Amino acid sequence: FVSTAAASADEQRHGRAVELFPEALREEIEDTNSWTYELCNATYRAGFATSQEAFERAVRDASAGLDRADKLLADRRFLCGDRLTEADVMLLPCAVRFDAVYAFLFLRGSCGLWRERVNLRRWLSDCWSLPGVRETVSVRACQESYYRTLFPLNPSQILPVASPDLDAFGPEPLDEAQAENLFHWNILA
């Protein structure tokens, strides 16, 4: 469970704060967090598997999670509807790292890529375009960390060649007015 921070000074000034865990969606968000956690966990289980059987089981679980998310996102913009929730925030770090790190270092190409699934690619682009998101993550720093610190998985510490658009998951960021309807709002008293 991730709790949201207190309202920022800007939110206080505007009299409202982003609500990532709205009451009406809590059960769906918790259920989604549960199975997306299993998707993320399966990538790590694959990466650190010590038997072929354990690796294949983890790959099946990761593939099933990717397929479930892609199918769900065929009918909605975000994981729990038309607005961003905690479920999207929880899955985003895995999504950002998936093609750059997990697909090859952990899953060894067995699940394909995030970007090969049209709905997952669109969802990541939508999340990436939200104000402030792209400034919080350096995909290259993620690669450097994983490929250089996980010696048993990459004893040579060779890094993939950096793509010129490595951090470009989507269009230019939306401004606040464009993003207005993509959030649940909590009116501050």
Total strand segments:
2
Proportion of strand residues:
under 5%
* Overall pLDDT level: 88
Oligomer: single chain
Determine the N-to-C terminus distance.
Answer: 25 Å
Enumerate the strands of the largest sheet in spatial order, edge to edge or round the barrel: 1-2
Report the uncertain regions: none
The outline comes out as globular
Which class of secondary structure composition applies to the elements?
A: mainly alpha
H/E element sequence: HEHHHHHHE
Query: Radius of gyration over alpha carbons?
Result: 18 Å
The largest sheet, given as strand count, sense and whether it forms a barrel, is: 2 strands, antiparallel
Question: What would you say this structure looks like, in words?
Answer:
There is one protein chain. The chain is mainly alpha-helical and 189 residues long. It is built from seven helices and two strands, in the order αβααααααβ. It has helices spanning 9-14, 26-47, 52-72, 86-106, 118-128, 139-149, 176-179, and strands spanning 16-18, 185-187. It has a two-stranded antiparallel sheet with strand order 1-2. Helix 2 runs antiparallel to helix 3 (52-72), helix 2 (26-47) packs parallel to helix 4 and helix 4 (86-106) crosses helix 6 (139-149). The longest helix is centred in the N-terminal third of the chain and has 22 residues, at 26-47. The protein is globular, with a radius of gyration of 18 Å. It starts with 8 loop residues before the first helix and ends with a strand.
